């Protein structure tokens, strides 16, 4: 089969994928469906939390911000990545390539930053409930949200526009990787380690430790409640609200722990390959790296599904959105769950 190039009239043009329509069409269908599901699912989360006053809580503000990250990834990043993945060509210009790559890294990093702060929120809710409202107040949550957006933005755009991601491997990049009509997410040995540690490994390790601590405390509380119930039945009646509260907080921690687990599973292949690829002479084929990127994108698709599976309030809110009940007068005061 004759080779095709992204720009036939230009020297050193990237090679275009010569896949037949039997491969290209299913790829476009799968990726477009993923994009649509990501946008619709996260938009439903955004509308639910923004509309219903009962959902205006510190944890839900963090979830709202994270859903916004995932929604933006779906509408600003994934469509262009789809064309690049199927065609192996970039038709949108060199400057926009840098903007796209920076936005991609920023939003992916912002997701795990949000998850890190959510784990801190859950730690205080489960392990120190008496001081939870004092420690996790509106000011604290706003600080977490701002940090989750600003720090990844500075890191991502600074690295891409200053070309720190190729520093130390410039000769290899320009001779072996760079071509006209390409837009590659490339990391040198140093930048690959720094990016993987900052965006994935360090915050991921911190989250695992925090949720491990939450699990231990929650088990201890459950045993304590069970022992108290066995010894003094009246105690259950007098302290029922507190037990229900603890049970709800443990369930929330379990749910958000599941979300964290999905994130780690989805993004592990990409970040492991990013960290190790430069040290093994980039033997991992670009098509495999690209597949890892899309596995990572699926995390943003799965998050709303986790909410729908675990949270009754989200299922009720989603039903009201689908049937247009949110447009009714005073629908924002609807009780979606009982304390």
Automatic annotation (TrEMBL):
PROSITE patterns linked to this entry: G_PROTEIN_RECEP_F1_1, G_PROTEIN_RECEP_F1_2
SMART domains for the chain: 7TM_GPCR_Srsx
Cellular-component GO terms for this entry: endoplasmic reticulum membrane; plasma membrane
Topology of this chain in the membrane: Multi-pass membrane protein
CDD domains registered for this protein in UniProt: 7tmA_TAAR1
Record keywords: Cell membrane, Disulfide bond, Endoplasmic reticulum, G-protein coupled receptor, Glycoprotein, Membrane, Receptor, Transducer, Transmembrane, Transmembrane helix
Sample GO molecular function, one term: trace-amine receptor activity
Chain ranges passing through the membrane: 25-49, 61-82, 136-162, 193-216, 255-272, 292-314
Domain G-protein coupled receptors family 1 profile: 41-307
Disulfide bond in keyword set: yes
Pfam families registered for this protein in UniProt: 7tm_1 (PF00001)
Subcellular location field: Cell membrane; Endoplasmic reticulum membrane
InterPro entries for this protein: GPCR_Rhodpsn, GPCR_Rhodpsn_7TM, TAAR, TAAR1, TAAR_fam
PANTHER family reported for this sequence: HISTAMINE RECEPTOR-RELATED G-PROTEIN COUPLED RECEPTOR, TRACE AMINE-ASSOCIATED RECEPTOR 1
Family: Belongs to the G-protein coupled receptor 1 family.
This protein's name: Trace amine-associated receptor 1
UniProt organism field: Engystomops pustulosus
């Amino acid at each position: 089969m004759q080779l095709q190039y992204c720009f036939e009239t230009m020297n050193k043009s990237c090679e275009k994928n010569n896949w037949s329509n039997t491969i290209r069409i299913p790829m476009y269908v799968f990726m477009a469906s993923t994009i649509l599901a990501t946008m619709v699912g996260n938009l439903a989360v955004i509308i639910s939390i923004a509309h219903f006053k009962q959902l205006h809580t510190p944890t839900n503000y963090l979830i709202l911000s994270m859903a916004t990250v995932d929604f933006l990834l779906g509408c600003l990043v994934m469509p262009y990545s789809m064309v690049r993945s199927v065609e192996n060509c970039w038709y949108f210009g060199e400057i926009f390539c840098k903007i796209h790559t920076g936005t991609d890294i920023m939003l992916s990093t912002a997701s795990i930053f949000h998850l890190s702060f959510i784990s801190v929120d859950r730690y205080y809710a489960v392990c120190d409930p008496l001081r939870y409202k004092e420690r996790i107040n509106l000011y604290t949550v706003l600080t977490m949200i701002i940090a989750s957006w600003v720090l990844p933005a500075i890191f991502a755009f600074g690295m891409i526009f200053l070309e720190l991601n190729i520093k130390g491997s410039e000769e290899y990049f320009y001779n072996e990787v760079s071509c006209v009509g390409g837009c590659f997410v490339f990391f040198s040995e140093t930048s690959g380690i720094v990016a993987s540690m900052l965006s994935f490994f360090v915050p991921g390790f911190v989250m695992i430790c925090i949720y491990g601590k939450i699990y231990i405390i929650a088990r201890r509380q459950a045993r304590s409640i069970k022992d108290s119930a066995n010894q003094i039945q009246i105690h259950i009646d007098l302290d029922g609200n507190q037990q229900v509260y603890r049970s709800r907080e443990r369930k929330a921690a379990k749910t958000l722990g599941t979300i964290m687990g999905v994130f780690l599973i989805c993004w592990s292949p990409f970040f492991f390959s990013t960290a190790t690829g430069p040290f093994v002479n980039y033997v991992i084929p670009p098509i495999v790296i690209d597949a890892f990127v899309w596995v990572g994108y699926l995390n943003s698709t799965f998050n709303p599904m986790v909410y729908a599976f675990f949270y009754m309030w989200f299922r009720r809110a989603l039903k009201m959105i689908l049937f247009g009940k949110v447009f009714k007068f005073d629908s924002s005061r609807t009780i979606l769950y009982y304390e």
